[in-house]
Amino acid sequence: MSRFKRGGKFVDSRAGFKTDKEEPSVPCGLLKSARKSGQLNLSGRGLTEVPQSVWRLNVDTPEEAQQNLSFGGADRWWEQTDLIKLFLSSNKLQSLSEDIHLLPALLVLDVHDNHLTSLPKSIGALENLQKLNLSHNKLKELPEELWNLKTLRSLHLQQNELEQIAEGVGQLDNLDDLDLSNNQLTGIPNSFGNLRNLVKLNLSYNKLRSLPPAISSMKSLKLLDCTHNQLETVPSVLAQMASLEQLYLRHNKLRYLPELPSCKLLKELHVGYNQIEVLGPEHLKHLSSISVLELRDNKLKALPDEIALLEGLERLELTNNDISSLPYTLGNLPKIKILALDGNPLRTIRRDLLTKGTQELLKYLRSRVQEVPDGRDQDPPKTAMTLPSQARVNVHAIKTLKTLEYSGKQEASIPDEVFDAVVSDPVVSVNFSKNQLTAIPARIVELKTTISDTNLGFNKITSISLEFCMLQQLVNIDLRNNLLTSLPAELEALTKLRSIILSFNRFKLFPEVLYEIPTLETILISNNQVGAIDPIQLRRLEKLSTLDLQNNDIMQVPPELGNCTSLRALMLDGNPFRNPRAAIVARGTDALLEYLRSRIPT
Fold first, then answer.
1. How far apart are CA 182 and CA 205, in angstroms?
2. In the 8-state DSSP scheme, what is residue 445?
3. Whole-angstrom distance, CA of residue 408 vs CA of residue 475
4. Is the pLDDT score of 3 beyond 80?
5. For residue 278, what are the β-bridge partners?
6. pLDDT tens digits, residue range 120-157?
7. CA distance 44 to 86
8. Calpha distance 258→300 (Å, rounded)
9. Phi/psi at 100 (nearest 5 deg)?
10. How many Cβ atoms from other residues are within 10 Å of residue 325's Cβ?
């Protein structure tokens, strides 16, 4: 290699001239250590560019060698190792030098959390690279040379601005971990089918409308995450992915479940927040290994009896569907730990039973198996009893079920005759959901001595009236899908309140009054714009077991949240925080709380 001396410094004649401006420096001790260990960590140093001495670490004679020619055995720089791991994360880098090719021995390159808008073409010369982390940058396109990295096993590109991935990605046939989440992808190339060693593929938070049938060739794939896309269907060949263990299809536009006859190893199927109307025996009969089946916020009307055959099932999530009856044989599932049914119009299971937890519910279902011949809920008998206004008021519901029902009418107010129909019958439940209400009906206060459940979801309510705060027998409140931005402090008068649903409103702040209601067991406030939560105040809610904060604007998860040990279900998906990482969140509530506690400063 040609060398010459300029200004007392050796410079390679082929590359790396830097004479006009002063470059950022790296402490000599770090460089010396890197020559011995093969690792260099420059993360979080505020670098706007990588010092030339880093790229030339294995090219230039070290400065200490020029100053002292008597070396001990440990200082023989010509015998020391090539750089194999370079960490440059959490800096302010906008680009990487083409001189990156001077580090051909690199196995790991981590430049996540920078401002990169492009990559050097010479990155394709890193023929030994196994792990490349480019996440949390501003990349809009990738150089073709990237696909030359045939030894690459892990490629992280999440949180960039990529709109497409070239067919060349199929050349990376040693990849086992590919993360493309949180980009702007509208399609996936067919060459994905060549990634036969891929074990984990994350495509969540993109704009995908379909998946190519070729993905069925990924015979090693265990985890496929397509959460938060625009999928209307899933290719039928997905059923051929025999290694698949976890499949995430939440927050899409699916109208039916895929049939998965070859997915014998599938342990987790997450299809919540879609538009699925039917769950049939054909969808369940092959899921012999399933332990988690998550179907919340769909349009299911019934469960097939065959669900009782899923003997490995530990968690069944059916919150917010249209299920009116259950097969009582659900109670016989041997491993079930979580059965979530809130937000369904169940006719014969009392609301208070649902709030007592899974074990009490299972106990009830088992007790009914012998009583009901076909093992299923029965619809309440029809009655001819009506008011002159005919079906405007369901008198049967008032008399028999103690429910005041006036839902799905799309009306701007509740007619007086609805309240007049109550007469002297004690009403414990009110359902005024799916109307056009902009305020809570004032006459609801007439029911304050008896009402325990109220459903005002799917209206246009902008504020909570003081009259509502007088309903001191309330146990469950459903206010989802309204226009609420705050709750009044007077709500703390509801000293029996156990459950409140505030999902799909316009809260930017977590309502302070909720911290003042110690009886609360369930708070669902997903799909708002909440930016923070106070873990110190939250810890006062000693009975709180379920907290759903999904799809908000939480930038930081306070470690002290780990001290809220009463929580059995903490849901944080869909927030912009970077820590804890998605892999930790996905491990479940107990693991997440333990991780957060470990981060509390001592």
1. 5
2. G
3. 23
4. no
5. 256
6. 999 999 999 999 999 999 999 999 999 999 999 999 99
7. 13
8. 15
9. -60, -20
10. 18
Nearest-CA neighbor of 201 among 242, 262, 245? 245
| H or E element at residue 393 | none
Asked if residue 439 lies in contact with residue 413, where contact means CB atoms within 8 angstroms, the answer is no
pLDDT at 266: 93
* Sign of the torsion angle spanned by Cα atoms 134, 140, 145, 146: positive
C-alpha–C-alpha distance, residues 313 and 310, integer Å: 6
**Contacts with 280 (C-beta within 8 Å, 6 or more apart), sequence order:** 304
Cα distance between the two ends of the chain:
53
Q: Which residues are registered as beta bridge partners of 3?
A: 12
Nearest alpha carbon to residue 460 among 442, 436, 486, 441: 436
Rounded Cα distance between 126 and 146, Å, is: 9
DSSP characters over 184-231: ------GGGGG-TT--EEE--SS--S---GGGGG-TT--EEE--SS--
Tokens matching residue 384: 């001819």
Query: Amino acid identity, residue 592?
Result: L
Nearest to 226 by CA among 199, 207, 213: 207
CA 305/CA 309 separation, integer angstroms: 8
Q: Which residues does 423 contact at the CB level (< 8 Å), separation at least 6?
A: none
Q: Which of 436, 421, 305, 322 is nearest to 372 (CA)?
A: 305
Residue of 200, 146, 148, 210 lying closest to 177 (CA atoms): 200
* Structure tokens that stand for 419 in this block: 């309240």
| CB hemisphere CA count around 290 (13 angstroms) | 26
Q: For Cα atoms 198, 103, 126, give the angle at the middle one, nearest 5 degrees.
A: 30
pTM above 0.70, yes or no: no
Residue 333 amino acid letter: L
Residues 10-45 pLDDT 10s:
334 344 444 444 556 788 888 888 998 999 999 889
Quick one: DSSP state of residue 404? E
Q: Which residues pair with 132 in a beta bridge?
A: 109, 155
**Is the backbone peptide bond immediately before 373 cis, with ω within 30 degrees of 0?**
no
In the chain, count of helices (H) and strands (E)?
11, 23
